[in-house]
Design a protein that fits this description.
binds zinc ion; 2 domains; Rossmann fold; Dehydroquinate synthase-like, alpha domain; six-stranded parallel sheet; alpha/beta; two-stranded antiparallel ribbon; 439 residues
């Protein structure tokens, strides 16, 4: 890529990283990483965390350069590493035994989440060497951990130092690169859900975070055509977009700015995969497809006559719980407290609907602005090589329907899925969506 192009991206990362005391380095080669880690967290006894693949890619080299022990995280059942509570606790004990004062994760989502969590438990320095531009969690203030069958978002500080070597990131599997783009494409829907929650529930909202996500979107949009061919410029743009987007979550202390109903659908698929062997794909691939579905629900929402809608009466908790217990099966004990919170009380629900009716014009104007002119556009995902249909993820129409109807119960986060349900429209909209779109 041109020197000007990479300098602009480095300036952006430095500007936004410095504000949050994070060192973000977009470099050409892995060999530049050890000096950057040592300069950022001086006089430290390091440990390096990797899995079988990332050990080979850069873990062994980095451990040798930092004169550090290499802690290898095994995959589950011979497969990929899972960011689960058991793995996180095991890594915490290993790090404690090693006496490390700082730790660097060599990997992407799962390894970074495990290392963020373990380092926070021990109060030691944390850094990451990014190996794939596959998700925006590198710089986010939280770790997604699977516990009791549920994906929990555990608050913890982002790595103090992130080094993203473009040469290594260009070698990431094509599906992981496409997943990174899919994760960023959630912006119209996650932004709209975040605003909706603020408007109807008064949850925190910060224009600064939305501005950062827009900047991430702008940078990544420049990448779309070069991702399939792994052009270094495109990979650098995508990586920068992901690092900026992750920081937006830090601003408000929740993942809400970049994680709405589309992420709930992805978490739902993850949960059924890990508990019952359901279909599954990379986080960002699931998020990209779910974004298209939720954007279609927003299209329907923006067309309704809110004053003509007769919201159904609030379903008694016992009736809902019976239905959900049968649907979630072995996951129910973990889901129940969250579902109870989502169900809430009738008074709060009536207040929300009243707020919606009174401020309908203003709310829909802002939602249209956030969603942009064409939020259901599949073309960019396709150009980036990302899946665009649930079938591409191995998810059947019945499983898609179930996911869209039940995802709202896996995390207490108000989204268009909740609003559609409260208006009594979710079932019919999902049926219509499945009958009329190619999802
Ligand atoms: Zn995500």
């Amino acid at each position: 890529m041109t020197d000007d192009g990479i300098l602009e991206l480095r300036d952006l990362l430095q500007k936004h990283g410095t504000r949050r005391d994070l060192d973000l380095h977009l470099v050409e080669r892995v060999e530049e990483a050890p000096a950057l880690f040592q300069a950022g967290l001086v006089h430290r006894k390091w440990a390096v965390v990797a899995d079988e693949t990332t050990q080979r890619l850069a873990g062994t080299y980095l451990a040798s350069a930092l004169n550090a022990p290499l802690l290898r995280i095994p995959g589950r059942a011979g497969g990929a590493v899972v960011a689960g509570r058991a793995e996180a606790d095991r890594l915490t004990r290993q790090l404690q035994t090693s006496g490390a004062e700082a730790v660097v994760a060599v990997g992407a989502g799962s390894l970074n989440d495990l290392t963020k969590f373990a380092s926070q438990q021990l109060g030691i320095g944390c850094a990451v060497l990014a190996t794939a531009p596959s998700m925006n969690g590198y710089t986010s203030a939280g770790a997604a951990l699977l516990e009791g069958g549920v994906k929990l978002s555990v608050p913890c500080a982002p790595p103090r130092i992130t080094v993203a070597p473009i040469g290594l990131l260009c070698q990431a599997p094509a599906r992981m690169i496409a997943a990174g783009y899919g994760d960023l494409r959630s912006r119209p829907v996650s932004g709209a859900d975040w605003y909706l929650s603020h408007r109807l529930l008064g949850t925190p909202y910060a224009a600064e975070a939305l501005g950062l996500i827009d900047e991430a979107d702008r940078v990544a949009a420049a990448a779309v055509d070069g991702l399939a061919t792994r052009s270094p410029a495109a990979i650098a743009n995508l990586t920068t977009g992901l690092l900026l987007s992750g920081m937006a979550m830090d601003i408000v202390g929740t993942s809400a700015p970049a994680s709405g109903g589309e992420h709930l659908v992805s978490h739902y698929l993850d949960m059924f995969h890990f508990s019952c062997g359901g279909p599954h794909d990379l986080h960002g691939c699931q998020v990209g497809v779910a974004t298209l579905a939720l954007a279609s629900l927003y299209e329907r929402l923006l067309k309704i006559d809110i004053h003509a809608v007769q919201a159904p009466t609030h379903e008694p908790w016992t009736d809902l719980a019976e239905r959900l217990a049968s649907h979630f099966g072995p996951l129910w004990s973990a889901v129940e407290p969250i579902a109870r919170q989502v169900h809430g009380d009738d008074e709060a629900r009536q207040d929300r609907l009243e707020t919606l009716r009174l401020g309908w014009a203003e709310t829909t104007t802002e939602l249209r602005r956030i969603l942009g002119p064409n939020p259901t556009c599949t073309e960019q995902l396709q150009r980036a090589g990302a899946p665009i249909r649930f079938a591409d993820l191995g998810v059947s129409p019945e499983q898609t329907r179930a996911a869209l109807l039940h995802a709202r119960f896996v995390r207490a986060r108000y989204t268009v899925l909740d609003l559609a349900a409260e208006l009594g429209l979710l079932d019919s909209w999902v049926d219509d969506l499945l009958a009329t779109s190619h999802l």
